[in-house]
Amino acid sequence: FQAEDGIRDQPRSRGLGDVYKRQQRRRSVPLWTLGVMTVGAMLLCNGFPAMAKAPPPGSGQADVPANLLMMLDTSGSMGWKISGGWGTCRTNQPNCKSRMSQSKKVIKAIVTDSDLTTGVNYGLMSWDSNAISPKHRNSRHPANIPVSKTGAALINRDLDRICPTRGGRVNACSGGTYLGAAMDVASAYFSGSSTPIDPKAKGCQVNALLVITDGAYFGKDPLPMTRSLAKRGIKTWVIGFGLRNASVKAKYTQLADAGDDGVMNGTGKPMFADNWKDLQTALSTAIRLSLIHI
After folding, report:
1. CB 276 within 8 Å of CB 105
2. CA–CA distance from 233 to each of 124, 137, 260 (Å)?
3. Contact 208, 127 (CB under 8 A)
4. What gap in Å lies between CA 237 and CA 273, rounded to an integer?
5. How confident is the model at residue 26 (pLDDT cuts 50, 70, 90)?
6. Which of 40, 58, 141, 164 sits at 20 to 30 Å (Cα–Cα) from 82?
7. What is the per-residue burial (b if ≥16 Cβ within 10 Å, else e) of 181-193?
8. Is residue 210 classed as helix, strand or coil in its secondary structure?
9. Residue 51: alpha-carbon gap to chain centroid
């Protein structure tokens, strides 16, 4: 394990971060409202009013789905027990739950929910001490999936390949939390020849990264690339799972702010969760908010 592991505290259920809680108390947006807002925004994009004739190919809701890349942290501590401590779940502990097992549970629920998959292209990129493009796989990243209309189904099918049972350990994750390198890989993917961005969308297409992580990042600073991605129209949502250390939360608060619009102005906020229910709420909320911020 990396030095990051020494700063992990025992998590206790606290729900989402204070900012997110205030957001939830202020308003609860019905899903049908989000749908109406999404359709309206897409039809108004590029000066096409909602009641005018249909926009040209590549600029309407039907043929320009959102592109969402889930970036799942698979560092060693993701295999730890959700109840806290450094221990991992063993094969003789059927009721033991790890951070990874709970993350998989949530992701599977997301990609099989028609409310969250309609009009969305999903992809998956795991990362730890290293990362490779979601269009490639290797033994460390066996479930990478490029962003596409079949991405949700493929994620549901292949997700369990990540952090498999090994040596008596359930969810045997390994490596460190090198997010800067992972952000570079994600950027290269979105700007390369295999980019999922529709060139005909003319700024109407939603493109976003959903970063799911449980610890402090090391190595290259991810802030500059996160800011650059935001200025190119690729937003970064930050979901911290089991984060208790205040300084670590502060770093991810900066990252979320940079990932919102590329400007450090306090508009972007991270979401924090200490259990699978709050993680599912945070991730699904980020997805829904992505679809109305066109």
Report:
1. yes
2. 19, 26, 9
3. no
4. 14
5. very low
6. 141
7. bbbebbbebbeee
8. strand
9. 34
d(CA 190, CA 214): 25
Residue 284 buriedness (CB in 10 A; 0-12 / 13-18 / 19+)? middle
Residue type, 222: P
CA distance 9 to 35: 39
Query: For 9, which DSSP code?
Result: P
CA angle at 283 for the pair 114 and 64, rounded to the nearest 5°: 50
pTM of the model: 0.81
CA distance linking residue 39 with residue 34, whole number of Å: 9
pLDDT, tens digit, 9 for 90 and up, residues 183-225: 999 999 999 999 999 988 877 899 999 999 999 999 999 999 9
Residue closest to 116 by CA, chosen among 243, 269, 293, 283? 283
- Looking at 44-48, 142-146, 249-253, which range is the least confident one? 44-48
**8 A C-beta contact, residue 127 and residue 72:** yes
The amino acid that residue 178 corresponds to is Y
Helix (H) / strand (E) element for 170: namely none
Query: Which pLDDT score is estimated for 43?
Result: 37
